[in-house]
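Team,

Forwarding the record for the chain on the shared tracking sheet. I've put the sequence and predicted structure together so nobody has to dig through attachments.
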Amino acid sequence: MTEPAHAYHLAQLNVATLLHPLDDPRIAPFVELLDPVNSAADAAPGFVWRLVEEGEADATGLRPAGEDVIVNLSVWENQEALWDFAYRSGHLELMRRRREWFERHVEAHLALWWIPAGHLPSVGEALERLRDLRAHGPSPRAFTFASSYTAAEAAPHLADRSARPADEARAAAV
């Protein structure tokens, strides 16, 4: 096994509240975009990992944040790689059409945070970071593209409140 090119990677969680059930015809255009967008993510420069449900191609069947909330959890080598994928690829079409399929969030729905390279965040850890962002605003522990922190700024905070078993049990509270 070779050493990772970066000591830290960027984790991202975003949640989206469906306007209709995933099998509703009004959501079909979103569902049709899932495979091509996920394939593009998997092949994107700087992509490391994304959450998928066991035996499935994506994570839309996982509902840790509520029955009508889908989650997207992924890891990237750096913030630039994630930004390029999110805003300079076919993913942008999905972003432009999100109001057709998802409720407008009144609180943070995206959280970014640095993790040691090789660590894969759990859903509980990710939801805890989102709760932290919602409760305390952007910080080196959880931030957004608009209020970001470098891996160096976040390094002292990496081990201060990792997801604990209690966090996993509270995951549905988001």
